[in-house]
Amino acid sequence: MASSSSAILVRRTITHLKNHPPSLSWCLSNHLLLSRNNSQSHNNNNNNNMAVPPQQQAASFSTQQPSNAGGGGGLPSFMRGAVYWEPNKPLTIEEFHMPKPKAGEVLIKTKACGVCHSDLHVLKGEIPFSSPCVIGHEITGEVVEHGPLSDPKIVERLPLGSRVVGAFIMPCGNCSYCSKGHDDLCEAFFAYNRAKGTLYDGETRLFLRSNGKPVFMYSMGGLAEYCVVPANGVSILPKSLPYNESAILGCAVFTAYGAMAHAAQVRPGDSVAVIGTGGVGSSCLQIARAFGASDIIAVDIQDEKLEKAKIFGATHTINSAKEDPVAKIIEITGGKGVDIAVEALGRPQTFSQCTHSVKDGGKAVMIGLAQAGAVGEMDINRLVRRKIQIIGSYGGRARQDLPKLTRLAESGIFNLSHAVSRTYKFEEAGKAFQDLNEGKIVGRAVIEIV
Ligand SMILES: [Zn+2]
Ligand SMILES: [Zn+2]
C-alpha cells in the first residue's frame, strides 16, 4: 500500500488559469469594485499582526514568477479572491499566492459561491469580522489537493478530482461538541474562524501576491478561485447536481435543515410559519414540506417573494406590510398559533412576531443573524405559563447533514433550480451584494467562479 504522504502529495494538472491576464482591469467591471491602486493603499494602511510564513514572505518579493512555478506540478501559483477591507467599502478582487492546505484540509478549485446575508452583514459592518478578509461561505468545487500528512481515510473519501459541496460551519472533528456529533457548535470553528478569521491552527491560508500580507477567511473564504477547507466540512456532490445551484446547499439549505431537523424537529402534520422568505427562509419552506408539515405559512413584505413561496410549499402567504402577521397566523390556525415559527431576518420586531405566532408549547426558532448587540424581547409570563420554547439555530451538522441534503436535492425533494433565481459572474461580486442589499434578489443568487 502506498504511503499516505506519497498518495496525497499528487496534484492534478490544471491549465486553464495559467494564462491569466496580468492586467487588473476586472476590478473596474462594475462600480462596486475599486481600482487596485485604491485597494493597495488600503492594504498598506492596514495594521494586522498576523504572522507571514517565511515561504510566503520570500514569494512576496518575486512578482515575475512563471504562472505555474509554485503550484507543485500543475496548479497555478496565483489566484484571485474578493476582499472585504472595511465596512461599506467596495469589495476588490485581488491576486493571492495559491493557498496551501495543511493536514486534514483540502484545496478546492471553487466553481460557485452563494450570495448570503451573513456576508452582507460583514460587508456593512453589522457583524464585526477580522479584516481584510475574503468573504463567501457557500461553495461547490473540485478537490485539487490534500494537505500533507492528511489521514488516508480523507483521501479515500475525497479523491483528487472529486466534485464537492462545502458547509459554512466547518467542524474540527475533535472538540467536545464535534465528538458528540454536534458539529454546529464546533468550538474550534467559533474560536478560530468566527472570532479570528483563521483556520484551526490560528493561521489564514491566504496571502496577497503583491506584498505577502495575510488576509483573513470568512469560513473558507469561498469567494475566490481556490479555497482551503477542513475536510470535515466537505461532502461529495453527485454528478447529477450542477455546481452553480448546489452551492446553496452549504449555507441556505444547510441552515434551513439545521433549523427544521434539529431545532424545530418538524413532524408530519405540524403547522409551520416562516417569517422572511429570502434564501434561507424559502429553503425552510421546502424542508418543512419535505418533512410533511401541513400548514406552511410564508410571511414577507414583498408580494413577488410570497408568490415564489407557493412554489416552495407555502400553503398560505401573508404580506406583513399590509396585515398583522401574528393575527393572521392565529386566524389561519383556528385561533391557536403554529406548532413552529421560524424567524429568518434577525430583527427585534420579527423576533417578537415569531414568539407570538406559536401555540402554547410551540417552538419559536431563531435563525436570522442580527446586527451585533440587537436584543429580542419576550413576555416572561407567557414564556413560563404557556411553555413557549425559544430555540436558536445557526446551521446544520456538516458530517451528518450535508450528505442528507445532497440526497434530498438529488431526488428532487428539495428543488435547487427553483431556489436559485440568479447567477452572477465572479467580476460582478460587488453588484451581487448590492442587489442583495437592495432586496432585488428573490430566493438565492449564486456567483459563478470559472
Ligand atoms: Zn450564509
Ligand atoms: Zn469541533
Features:
binds zinc ion, alpha/beta, six-stranded parallel beta sheet, seven-stranded mixed beta sheet, 16 helices, 450 residues, disordered N terminus, single chain, 21% strand
Structure description:
- InterPro entries: ADH-like_C, ADH-like_N, ADH_Zn_CS, ER, GroES-like_sf, NAD(P)-bd_dom_sf.
- Pfam families: ADH_N, ADH_zinc_N.
- GO terms for molecular function: oxidoreductase activity; zinc ion binding.
- It comes from Crotalaria pallida (Smooth rattlebox).
- By secondary structure, the protein is of the alpha/beta class.
- 30% of the residues lie in helices and 21% in strands.
- It has helices spanning 4-8, 36-45, 54-60, 117-123, 152-157, 187-196, 243-246, 252-263, 279-290, 303-312, 325-332, 348-357, 380-385, 398-410, 416-419, 429-437; strands at 78-84, 92-97, 105-115, 133-134, 139-146, 163-166, 206-207, 214-217, 226-230, 234-236, 272-275, 296-300, 316-319, 338-343, 358-366, 389-392, 420-425, 444-448.
- Strands 3, 5, 6, 9, 10, 17 and 18 form a seven-stranded mixed beta sheet that branches. Strands 13-12-11-14-15-16 form a six-stranded parallel beta sheet, with helices on both faces.
- Strand 15 (358-366), helix 13 and strand 16 form a beta-alpha-beta unit.
- Helix 8 crosses helix 9 (279-290) and helix 11 (325-332) runs parallel beside helix 12 (348-357).
- The protein is globular.
- The protein starts with a helix and ends with a strand.
- Residues 1-72 have low confidence and may be disordered.
- Bound molecules: zinc ion (ZN) (2 copies).
- The site of one zinc ion has 9 residues, from helix 6.
